[in-house]
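Fill in residues.
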């Protein structure tokens, strides 16, 4: 793949660009050569997760006391890392995104000092992973419709229910999942939702067989079941009844991180298409000389810059402490635009490759399969449009 880093489209700091180079070198050496095989074998490479941990990628937003980067890291660095890993392998990109955004972030933001001490050092080191169990068979976009219940009995939460499509939830190094559950009823009659930490191996907690997915074959995704799962009362994450607010806040950050993953996908599509358009000969010359192809590659360049700018603008707002309302809107805009662009970009790249684009021998086919879920996870495109319209003041349901 050609190096396009000098064409960044958004002025990141020199430190961020140096960090990008470090992650790119790592991704090229440790991930790119193996990504096709992991995809074909549906193999989740735990050893590479550990190496990503050793590089500090799981600690980019964590304080030094838990082994994190402290002042040397920020949310923008995390987006750079996700973009660069995602440029060579979307499966490993989502593994990093979910590990930090959905695994570490809720404990870091809402956990008690004891919970943080107990779980964060290993999660930040990348020697363990945590899942975030929000989605259920009957509750996805409408996550507040959760049916999983947790009842307090003799100083223990007893959890019953099911979650589905949960990333990093059943790997050999998964140490816990945070689970949203109904813990009662509020005064206004709506369900009280709280978040409970359920350690792996707790009796009654089962990560069922991994899904057979369209893409992200090398990422770890399971349905989860909970049957009379007993955990200490102290495993309540943050305050009782705050589960809904907690997952909304978690997903705001996650949306920007997913947008960064989409940017990595578009970057890969541009690099692959550009190289192929220069090599492939038809009618006595390279296909890149034909306007029909050249214009498609030009469109990829536009999508890349626009998506990258929206993503890093939102990340900069997070790092700079922008008002929450503004950040939420920027996160939804970035997620919607970058992920829909990524799906379009993979369609274009596959078209540029012609029949070869349909063959697994080129990575473009893998990116085509991997891209679709970007428009679904951490809030579908429709949910983003709903949030954006609401942000504009429209009373949309
Ligand atoms: C590979 C993968 C990994 C995932 N990882 C996780 C994870 O780690 N943790 C987790 O909790 N979840 C995870 N998810 C779940 C994901 O967040 C949900 O799939 C997503 O939020 C959509 O929910 P749903 O699948 O129930 O679809 P539904 O909510 O049933 O939506 C179906 C369709 O209806 C549309 N729709 C629904 N409501 C509205 C509305 N009000 N207005 C307009 N359109 C609407 C949707 O946009 C969609 O097109 C993962 C999903 C996948 C595929």
């Amino acid at each position: 793949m050609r190096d396009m880093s000098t064409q960044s489209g958004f002025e990141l700091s020199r430190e961020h660009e140096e960090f990008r180079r470090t992650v790119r070198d790592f991704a090229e050496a440790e991930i790119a050569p193996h990504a096709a095989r992991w995809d074909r074998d549906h193999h989740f490479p735990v050893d590479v997760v550990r190496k990503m941990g050793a590089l500090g990628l799981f600690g980019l937003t964590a304080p030094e006391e838990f082994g994190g980067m402290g002042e040397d890291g920020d949310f923008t660095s995390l987006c750079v890392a996700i973009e660069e890993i995602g440029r060579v392998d979307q499966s490993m990109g989502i593994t990093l995104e979910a590990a930090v955004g959905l695994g570490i972030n809720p404990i870091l933001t809402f956990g008690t000092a004891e919970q943080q001490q107990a779980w964060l050092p290993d999660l930040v080191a990348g020697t363990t992973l945590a899942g975030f169990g929000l989605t259920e068979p009957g509750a996805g976009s409408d996550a507040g419709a959760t049916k999983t219940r947790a009842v307090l009995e003799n100083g223990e939460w007893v959890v019953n229910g099911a979650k589905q499509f949960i990333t990093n939830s059943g790997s050999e190094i998964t140490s816990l999942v945070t689970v949203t559950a109904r813990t009662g009823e509020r005064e206004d009659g709506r369900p009280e939702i709280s978040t409970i930490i359920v350690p792996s191996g707790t009796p009654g907690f089962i990560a069922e067989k991994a899904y057979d997915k369209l893409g992200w074959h090398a990422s770890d995704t399971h349905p989860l079941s909970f049957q009379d799962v007993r955990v200490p009362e102290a495993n309540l994450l943050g305050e009782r009844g705050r589960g809904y607010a907690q997952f909304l806040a978690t997903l705001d950050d996650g949306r920007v991180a997913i947008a960064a993953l989409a940017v990595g996908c578009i970057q890969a599509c541009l690099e692959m298409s550009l190289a192929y358009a220069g090599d492939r000969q038809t009618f006595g010359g390279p296909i890149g000389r034909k306007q029909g192809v050249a214009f498609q590659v030009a469109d990829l360049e536009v999508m890349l810059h626009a998506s990258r700018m929206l993503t890093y603008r939102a990340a900069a707002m997070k790092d700079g402490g922008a008002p929450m309302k503004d950040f939420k809107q920027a996160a939804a805009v970035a997620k919607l635009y970058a992920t829909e662009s990524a799906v379009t970009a993979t369609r274009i790249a596959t078209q540029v490759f012609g029949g070869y684009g349909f063959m697994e021998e080129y990575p473009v086919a893998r990116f085509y399969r991997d891209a679709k879920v970007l428009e679904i996870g951490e809030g579908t495109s429709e949910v983003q449009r709903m949030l954006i319209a609401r942000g504009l003041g429209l009373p949309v349901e």
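Confidence is low (pLDDT under 50) at residues 1-9.
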